[in-house]
Predict the 3D structure of the following.
Amino acid sequence: MQITVKYFASLRELVGEAVASLDIDDSVTVNDLWQKILSDHQLEFEQVMMTVNHEYVKPEHELKSGDEVAFFPPVTGG
Amino acid sequence: MLIEIRNKAFNAWTEVQIYQDSQSFRGQYGAIATFVGSMRDFNEDKKVTGMTLEHYPGMTEKHLEAIAKDAIGKWKLLDVLILHRIGKVKIGEDIVLVVTWSAHRKEAFESCRAIMEQLKSSAPFWKREDIKAGSKWVEKNTPGY
């Protein structure tokens, strides 16, 4: 199934792209996807925040076709 | 309620006046609490010369709206105004404005503080500071409590 993945701030620079369209298997969790991204890009990144369709989710959240997933470092606004 | 992301400099005090004058709730509120966050020229003992603020278009606006709506319900507020800068920010410019209007001061004070702390800990914005050696991402916000 197809999903969109977005990266922000320092993580975008480490991954080398802002947005990617990925084809993933069914029953994949957002943490499964994150671990695959870390492995594919040979990255170590401890404090990540995860959202699906603009809402914060837990790592065990299961992805669905068409989801917009985002990964980013701790927020620093205000 | 007004939530806006601005990519140009704004004067927080002028914005409060403009918004308040455009509303029809004068006489209903007895308290207005205002928080303004501005750009410093230092961070963690280092000289800072400027900053760039990034956000997550679509999510940031929705998230701020949810924070404001929660606060309106919890503290029975008359209104909330939140403005936040993105893009290049110069020293001394305003970064964030949070205003709450309520009948009494307790609700205005508490809600303004709570909105600001929630914004700091969960609204998707990221700061990149310009320093002598180039620029670097700010890794975390300082605790508010």
